[in-house]
Amino acid sequence: MQLIDGSPCGRPTLLPLCRQFTSKGFLTSQDRINEKSVWCCGWLPCTPLRIAATAGHGNCVDFLIRKGAEVDLVDVKGQTALYVAVVNGHLESTKILLEAGADPNGSRHHRSTPVYHASRVGRDDILKALIRYGADVDVNHHLTPDTRPPFSRRLTSLVVCPLYISAAYHNLQCFRLLLQAGANPDFNCNGPVNTQEFYRGSPGCVMDAVLRHGCEAAFVSLLVEFGANLNLVKWDSLGPEARGRRKMDPEALQVFKEARSIPRTLLSLCRVAVRRALGKYRLHLVPSLPLPDPIKKFLLYE
């Protein structure tokens, strides 16, 4: 019996598979439904849920979960069903998995995360769903284990940061969503940072990266609004030739220079201070605070 039918475009079709399993009673066993078999991508052992999520068959994803499929079971690459659903751009399957309790951060056994990938490809709709279900918009969950050992990994590169990658690919809406959700505007990490171990010539902070990648002025304005430390950018030590080779957006550079030369307003400083005091995990509670609606919207940058 062929377990997966190939579609004309070469992608697996799960509807016949689910019908076969249902009619033959194959999904009555908890062990069977979470069994990893060589069904997908040539010789990659995968569970039925992982295959359904890859193909974007939301009805099959929902069916398998209701029959007892483990939502956070990883494949040999350390990828969860949620991660592959995000990678393949399947919003419906992503929402179904999140509603079923899937970890929005993916697995520690895989170096990338759903938030990182959505930020890289500019899927702000998927990113919104991940944030709504508590995804960490920083990279702390990958740097420091839950057990909190005496030592912890330090951030030594911005490349692993969702905020950085959204800027590098000029995905402004994802960049804004990450900041609104509480992402650190300087390093996209609230843990220890070791800038001395950053790759030579690489950006020293997110603002530095935004300027180097020629992002439009809106990126700079957002970082300023969300309280980025402008003094982390060491442009004073660079000559005009070095700056010219970076192909910076002239308007963005002008916005940065003006922001650094003019003190921020007390109103702006107060908003940043209140948001930091609340912490990113409590920002979603702002709408429930006994405050006038304009103040709530102000704190949420709406």
From TrEMBL:
<dbReference type="InterPro" id="IPR036770">
    <property type="entry name" value="Ankyrin_rpt-contain_sf"/>
</dbReference>
<comment type="pathway">
    <text>Protein modification; protein ubiquitination.</text>
</comment>
<dbReference type="GO" id="GO:0006511">
    <property type="term" value="P:ubiquitin-dependent protein catabolic process"/>
</dbReference>
<dbReference type="Pfam" id="PF12796">
    <property type="entry name" value="Ank_2"/>
</dbReference>
<dbReference type="Pfam" id="PF07525">
    <property type="entry name" value="SOCS_box"/>
</dbReference>
<keyword id="KW-0040">ANK repeat</keyword>
<dbReference type="InterPro" id="IPR001496">
    <property type="entry name" value="SOCS_box"/>
</dbReference>
<feature type="repeat" description="ANK">
    <location>
        <begin position="110"/>
        <end position="142"/>
    </location>
</feature>
<dbReference type="GO" id="GO:0016567">
    <property type="term" value="P:protein ubiquitination"/>
</dbReference>
<dbReference type="GO" id="GO:0035556">
    <property type="term" value="P:intracellular signal transduction"/>
</dbReference>
<comment type="similarity">
    <text>Belongs to the ankyrin SOCS box (ASB) family.</text>
</comment>
<dbReference type="GO" id="GO:0000151">
    <property type="term" value="C:ubiquitin ligase complex"/>
</dbReference>
<dbReference type="InterPro" id="IPR037331">
    <property type="entry name" value="ASB1_SOCS"/>
</dbReference>
<keyword id="KW-0677">Repeat</keyword>
<dbReference type="InterPro" id="IPR036036">
    <property type="entry name" value="SOCS_box-like_dom_sf"/>
</dbReference>
<feature type="repeat" description="ANK">
    <location>
        <begin position="77"/>
        <end position="109"/>
    </location>
</feature>
<protein>
    <recommendedName>
        <fullName>Ankyrin repeat and SOCS box protein 1</fullName>
    </recommendedName>
</protein>
<feature type="repeat" description="ANK">
    <location>
        <begin position="47"/>
        <end position="76"/>
    </location>
</feature>
<dbReference type="InterPro" id="IPR002110">
    <property type="entry name" value="Ankyrin_rpt"/>
</dbReference>
<feature type="domain" description="SOCS box">
    <location>
        <begin position="260"/>
        <end position="302"/>
    </location>
</feature>
<keyword id="KW-0217">Developmental protein</keyword>
<keyword id="KW-0833">Ubl conjugation pathway</keyword>
<dbReference type="Pfam" id="PF00023">
    <property type="entry name" value="Ank"/>
</dbReference>
